[in-house]
Amino acid sequence: MEEEKQKIQTEKPQITDCDLSEKIKSVTKECHVRANSTELMQAFQRGNITLMQYKLLLCSLYKIYEALEEELDRNASHGSVAPIYFPQELARAETLKRDLQHFYGQNWREEMFIPASTLRYTQRLREIGCKHPEYLVAHAYTRYLGDLSGGQVLSRVPQRSLGLKNGEGLGFFSFPAINSPNLFKQLYRSRMNSIELTETQKEGVLEEAIRAFEFNIQVFDELQTFVNISEENEQRQRRKAQNLKTPDISVSQRSAVTSSLTSDSQLLRMLLGACLALALGIGIYLF
Ligand code: HEM
Q1: What InterPro entries does the database record attribute to this sequence (predicted)?
Q2: Is residue 246 part of a domain?
């Protein structure tokens, strides 16, 4: 905490409207709202995430951070990456790996489900890592600052709704090397603003930030579609199994039962009538 405060005071962040950190926040405002409105993020906000939703999200996040962090490591000394390179404080891939091991066991890599949109996202990260390392700041900002902002509030949801204990499977949300997310975000923004970029590069970074949000939205949507289909299939299987145990009765079968009941009671009434008539006849005869 003291170290973070010191760093921020030494670096004296004077953030203005023209700064990259302000511009990037403003151009991604609309996408941020859309990302929050996806069905998956809504489930988080309502506080009722399912185990399937959570596990699938972790799988995709692992692939995304694996690619992002490998590209950041490879470009660590690049002028646009060095100022925002904080592997000690931010790196997520290793913690995600442990979370996945918790849920899937030792064969977690084979068990993972990775949708096509996640693969497209990681391909883009690899591509810019080679061709435009200055764009990596847009992706690092989108993920890490998001995790240090809304992500901190959302962390309580899987813990509560999935009953996860002792932090198991929840490593992704915890940043043990960061005492104050707010102070760290200030430091990060000031480092972003210190990156020297031409106007064209700055424009490229802003466009890339929008793209980063779009990739996230696509991943959330595809994961949710998969969850919905799986749940529908599960329900269909359950209904099928129930039907096998207690066979359903069709409408025609039900009406056959009703009509047979009706004719049975008519028969009974006729028999009773006949007995009464016979008894009366015998009575009259004897009398
Ligand atoms: C349930 C979903 C989400 C909620 C409730 C949420 C909430 C928030 C909140 C409260 C902030 C702080 C705003 C501020 O300091 O002015 C924030 C910032 C941020 N969020 Fe989210 N968020 C969500 C999803 C996402 C997603 C999916 C992403 C991107 C993948 C994201 C990326 C960011 C970023 C980059 C920031 C930093 C903005 C800045 O200070 O420049 N958020 N979010």
Answers
A1: Haem_Oase, Haem_Oase-like, Haem_Oase-like_multi-hlx, Haem_oxygenase_CS
A2: no
pLDDT tier for residue 260 given thresholds of 50, 70 and 90: very low
Q: Which residues line ligand 1 (CB under 6 A)?
A: 25, 32, 35-36, 41, 44-45, 141-142, 145-146, 149-150, 154, 213, 216
Length of the chain measured in residues: 287
At 147, the amino acid letter reads D
Long-range contacts (CB closer than 8 Å, 24 or more residues apart) made by 80-86 = 80/133, 80/134, 80/136, 80/137, 80/195, 80/196, 80/197, 80/201, 81/133, 81/134, 81/136, 81/137, 83/191, 83/192, 83/194, 83/195, 84/137, 84/140, 84/141, 84/188, 84/191, 84/192, 84/195, 86/188
Cα of 248 vs centre of ligand 1, distance in Å, is 50
Give the number of the atom of ligand 1 that is nearest the alpha carbon of residue 21.
41
pLDDT band at 92 (very low <50, low <70, confident <90, very high): very high
Which residue, judged by its Cα, is nearest atom 19 of ligand 1? 146
Percent of the chain scoring above 70 in pLDDT: 79
pTM listed for this prediction: 0.82
Q: Is residue 133 part of a domain?
A: yes
Please tell me whether 5 is known to bind a ligand. no
Residue nearest (by alpha carbon) to ligand 1 atom 41? 25
On whether residue 251 sits in a domain, the answer given is no
Domain extent at residue 29:
2-226
- When divided into structural domains, the chain yields a total of 1
Report the CATH number at residue 64.
1.20.910.10
